[in-house]
Design a protein that fits this description.
Two copies of one chain form a homodimer. Chain A is α+β, with helices and mostly antiparallel strands and 451 residues long. In chain A, 21% of the residues lie in helices and 33% in strands. Chain A has ten helices and 28 strands. In chain A, strand 16 and strand 17 form a beta hairpin. Chains A and B meet through strand 15, strand 16, strand 17, helix 10 and strand 19 of A and strand 15, strand 16, strand 17, helix 10 and strand 19 of B.
Chain lengths: 451, 451
């Protein structure tokens, strides 16, 4: 069976943890693994590496490649589909399934799922049903959650049910009715036979179907088609939809509240990611941090501390985090876009400090990678190697630098920084000049085509 | 009139804002001024610079000198009394008043007081009464505060009253009675004629009085005498105590709750020091920070964010912050002692980043100051000048470095860094080596006697 991983999603409800250039699915939240990596591992239960596909925004290309490399998983480059912009799930799935035939497990990359026998059995049952149906997976509810859509199961098909109806996110009293009536949470996971999917797409969303047929590349039409989910565009209208129940621990991690739900809690109901907080007279709080956090006399809070932004929210109100995101977006505040650590094809850098006329970065270059051959017109740079070996090209000369060694690149001089070794290269760069923005760079040659 | 400023106090209830090596009175909380500086300015209303005295822990010597320099105030060095350890207010005051005669205004350095005509009139009235009394200042209460001691005024003396009784911090119902009965908050400010004070000290706390008489230096006896406040040791027992009422905005700033009380608040009751927070559906919160803070759906919180520690406390519970301080102290956690910025006689440094085998600091050296002539055995150092001009002595040679210029000091080499100019010198120092602690330093020569 093939698997398609949907790796889009900006994670705006998990700001400040999630930023546009490093969204929720790529953050190493759980034991040094990202949600995308955990989804990759789940995909391998069903498919061989060459049978795994990924669709995501093109900005996430290197996040995807890095996460795969970390796990030593090689997915063929041609299986990675990079959209120019987000059009929700329907166009993304159609793009992949129209040129690759077979049965596809469709997995969102930013959910939490605990794999169990029940999980695997559900996929087996779904595989059989997918001969005749587009199959959804419905999670057995653990509570009347108001943040999920629900699926009303109908006629028993053996291993699954016809879907009678899809229900929008309910208020609390409706949610209780749904749970009592045996409705299931819509998990966002599917199993589609490409043949049936294409038929239904042609029939139910002909304009999108035709748009794909009529054009060579997505650029030509992708911003003209509607943003539409596969649930809304096909599943709610088709008469060939089945649901297979799944009794597993699951969360869409769509809010900090849901993150709190799936984390382990101590005897006071407190959960934490990062250094263990000091909690005095405090209960039922979530603390996500990277330094010492002390709470006194507080309950039901979500505290998320990052290098450049802190969120303190009442539990249950974390959906309103979107408003912060919108406020900052409207002001073009770069703190929605970027953490103080930025990822590049060759590795990453963290801005340690900025002052008038200077900026200090810690640069990490992965083994075998190098920056572009470049120059800056407004700044000079000092490099001090702190770990690994650097090959430096500057002003026509090549040098090897070891930890403790340094070099100076005057403004205007052509230079290149490379890691020829087997371990990460770490360099402290001090920039000095009148203009220190990232756009003061002229690339003459680049391994990643960015000239 | 003379003024004695009591500048001790570790500010443990204002952790993490306040740290042992940089306590509350020296932090630039209000418009770039510290509470100590504001107290200095109040002292100048009553006294000329040569009539101002300061008593504090010896660790705060350079904080005091720096704060005075910032304001261009020169207090004679001999007026600065540095205790080897804290013994509370009685021994501190006695130490100064026994060898300097006259009337002394006694001012705590870590309180907030709004200077007004009423403030000045109160000191005039107190000066007259101090001929015959030890005078305290009682603040007219604005509410039944349970965090302050109260003073019960008795017979009217004209301009002040005999003190009938001192009352301990009351519970709420007692506080209400006190306020209704016209009791006053004990402000911790006094006006003492040294003659009367010494008489009363000799009579009421003879063992402390005698200890001073019997020894040349404090070292010999200071850890053997009891820690005792002037209120408890003398004022509550003497029959020569008067109180002058003062109707001013005042707070002992003994907790974040009291900081909240004196700060300006917006229409939602929110107060902030630092970048203006984003507040969604949030009321009556205090945010003290240095980066973006967003609050959602929360009320009555105290949020204090510093580089290496975050406090989130319910308002009204901030007295329990002491427990955090104790927990960390017991573990010898250096976060009670030091911020990431450490102050030195020549200026300061901030640790920007520490890794395995490297440490990066931003060093600021004040005009005309220099570090010691020193060497390190386990680390080499790179200096890049980012602002100002550096005079570098290294391995027998002197150089001047301008912004953008750098030098390298190998381990073991004798070196010295100096600011010969008129503006602050800022240098980025990258240390590399197997051992990077502050104690790997051999000082050959030092302007501050630290060899």
């Amino acid at each position: 069976m093939k698997t398609l991983i949907l790796a889009g999603g900006k994670g705006t409800r998990l700001w400040p943890l999630s930023r546009e250039l490093m969204p929720k699915q790529f953050i190493k939240i759980f034991d040094g693994s990202s949600l995308f990596q955990k989804t990759l591992q789940r995909a391998l239960i069903l498919s061989k590496p060459e049978e795994i596909f990924v669709v995501a925004n093109r900005e996430y290309k290197f996040r995807i490649i890095d996460d795969m490399r970390d796990l030593n998983i090689e997915i063929p480059k041609e299986n990675i589909y990079l959209e120019p912009r987000a059009r929700s799930t329907l166009p993304a799935i159609l793009w992949v399934l129209r040129t690759n035939s077979g049965k596809f497990a469709i997995l969102p990359s930013d959910h939490f799922v605990e794999v169990s026998e029940d999980y695997k059995n559900a996929f087996r049952a779904a595989e059989r049903l997918s001969e005749n149906f587009l199959v959804t997976f419905g999670i057995k509810p653990t509570k009347p959650h108001t943040g999920y859509g629900y699926i009303k199961p109908g006629k028993d098909l053996g291993g699954g049910f016809i879907v009678d109806e899809f229900k929008e996110k309910p208020d609390l009293s409706k949610a209780k009715e749904f749970v009592e009536s045996g409705y299931l949470w819509n998990s966002g996971m599917f199993l589609f036979d490409s043949r049936i999917f294409i038929e239904e797409a042609k029939k139910l969303t002909p304009e999108i179907f035709e748009a794909f047929e009529a054009h060579e590349s997505l650029e030509e039409f992708y911003d003209k088609i509607p943003e539409i989910s596969v649930d809304y565009g096909i599943l709610e209208k088709s008469n060939k939809v089945a649901v297979v129940p799944m009794d597993v621990k699951w969360s869409d991690l769509g809010s900090f509240d849901s993150l709190y739900e799936i984390l382990a809690k101590d005897e006071f109901g407190n959960a934490a990611i990062g250094e263990k907080p000091i909690a005095i007279n405090s209960k039922n709080n979530l603390v996500v941090g990277q330094k010492l956090v002390a709470t006194v006399g507080v309950e039901n809070l979500i505290i998320v501390d990052t290098e450049d932004a802190l969120l303190v929210s009442k539990r249950g109100e974390s959906e309103r985090v979107r408003e912060i995101y919108k406020t900052l977006s409207a002001k073009n505040d770069k703190r929605v876009v970027i953490h103080r650590t930025a990822f590049r094809p060759w590795g990453s850098y963290t801005v340690l400090e900025e002052g008038e006329r200077y900026k200090i970065k810690r640069i990490t270059i992965k083994p075998g990678k190098r920056l572009s051959l470049q120059r800056h017109y407004h700044r000079s740079e000092h490099w001090v190697v702190v770990k690994g070996t650097a090959r430096v090209y500057s002003d026509g000369k090549k040098t090897l630098l070891r930890p403790g060694e340094s070099t100076f690149i005057p403004a205007g001089v052509l230079h290149r920084l490379e890691n020829p070794g087997k371990v990460d290269l770490e360099v402290i760069e001090t920039q000095i000049g009148e203009y220190l923005e990232e756009d003061d760079i002229e690339r003459i040659e680049d391994d990643y085509g960015r000239e």
